[in-house]
Specification:
Globin-like; Alpha-Beta Plaits; Arc Repressor Mutant, subunit A; RsbRD_N_dom
Length: about 400
């Protein structure tokens, strides 16, 4: 096929396409890039002669591919120069939608220069031209997309490693070391201890439990990034972990909203405890937050954000001492009656609501009443009496605390 010459789109109505056997690809590429610049398509790309030269080179290669294809010659299966350029754009944080939009507009402009809209073309089959255009666009799109994914994954891995290092340093009390990483260290943090239950699909025998759990963790991390960007520092597993949120990035009430968002993203009910602390106090605050989380889980409290202000009594009851041992002994009469101990735990965890307790235990409310009477007879303390129930509640906390220490 002989292509006679390339013309500007605005002259297409009065000139036929007459490109010589060796088309002026350099000139066409330059005009395509000029068109993209004038149209504002490249407005988000960092200006400069280097970038313009790179775009021109990539455009020239793509036009060469198109001309080879239209001439019946086998074109290259890869666009290495485009791949290298796309890697640089990804590292420079040029949005991928900008690059792909430029590719579409560039291909359109290039076709108008190679194949004018008006009149019949000289030896160019329009069907072949359309097919070649689709093939080239697909090659460009796949090359750019795969390159962006590869580069962004590399950047994400580097950031993840840095975050892990900084978080570990702060949790260990090495504030100075954490500051050397390049990641900004806040003066104060909300220290969150998280308990993330298994997703229902993790118990589906048809699915890989580990794969489902990792997906849940990725959704949690993605939601966290959406809410706080790169401000939060995390040390998480599929079961939970620790999150450090700068106090200038989130309010106290915002922590509750954050945990709700994480629960929604993972489709599980996340339980959290939070303690505010200066950067140098993070190790102690982390231990405190996880101690509170242990108490919340031991007591079977509802999944939400819990704070020391509402768990002060429970926390104090877990401290060692003679009173702790004496409280633990109050439940010894129930050691031979596990169903009564379970009923007591559920009854107190549901704010002494017999109906809710019965629902959780899958028994009739009257059964709960009967068991409460038996507990009262065995321990000498009536769980339904406002003057004595809190002794049993305190005893449960003391016993669970002891069991946790033994474990």
């Amino acid at each position: 096929m002989i292509i006679e010459s390339a013309v500007r789109p605005e002259h297409a109505a009065d000139k036929r396409l007459t490109v010589p056997p060796t088309p002026d690809v350099h000139r066409i590429a330059h005009e395509v890039v000029t068109h993209l610049a004038r149209s504002g398509t490249l407005c988000t790309v960092t200006p400069g002669n280097t970038v313009r030269a790179e775009l021109t080179a990539v455009t020239r290669i793509c036009l060469g591919w198109m001309i080879q294809r239209l001439s019946g010659e086998p074109p290259a299966r890869r666009l290495d120069r485009l791949e290298a350029a796309a890697a640089g754009w990804a590292r420079d944080e040029v949005p991928i939608e900008t690059v792909l939009h430029a590719a579409h507009e560039g291909l359109k402009a290039g076709l108008e220069l190679l194949i004018p809209r008006g009149g019949r073309t000289s030896g160019i089959d329009i069907t072949t031209a359309i097919t070649a255009s689709i093939e080239l666009l697909g090659l460009i799109t796949s090359t750019v997309s795969k390159t962006y994914v590869r580069e962004l994954k590399s950047v994400a891995d580097e950031h993840h490693t840095s975050v892990h290092t900084v978080t570990s340093a702060l949790l260990a009390g090495h504030t100075a070391t954490a500051g050397e990483s390049g990641i900004p260290i806040a003066e104060r943090y909300f220290v969150l201890a998280l308990a993330v239950p298994a997703h229902p699909d993790e118990n589906d025998p048809r699915l890989d439990r580990q794969v489902v759990a990792r997906r849940k963790l990725r959704r949690l991390q993605s939601a966290l990034a959406t809410q706080l960007g790169h401000g939060a520092l995390t040390l998480l597993s599929v079961d939970g972990g620790t999150i450090l949120v700068p106090t200038d990035a989130c309010t106290e009430t915002g922590i509750d909203e954050l945990v709700q968002q994480l629960s929604a993203a993972t489709s599980v009910d996340i339980t959290a405890t939070v303690v505010a602390a200066a950067a140098g106090e993070i190790p102690a605050a982390t231990r405190h937050a996880h101690e509170l989380l242990d108490i919340v889980e031991q007591l079977g409290l509802e999944p939400r954000v819990h704070r020391l202000t509402e768990l002060a009594l429970e926390y104090q009851l877990t401290r060692p001492g003679a009173g702790h041992t004496r409280l633990d002994r109050l439940l010894e009469p129930l050691d031979d009656h596990p169903e009564l101990l379970q009923t007591l735990q559920t009854y107190l965890a549901t704010d002494r609501n017999r109906t809710r307790a019965a629902r959780q235990l899958h028994v009739h409310p009257n059964t709960v009443d009967y068991r409460m009477q038996r507990i009262g007879n065995l321990t000498g303390l009536d769980p339904t009496d406002s003057r004595t129930w809190w002794y049993l509640y305190s005893a449960l906390i003391a016993r669970r605390s002891r069991a946790s220490c033994i474990a």
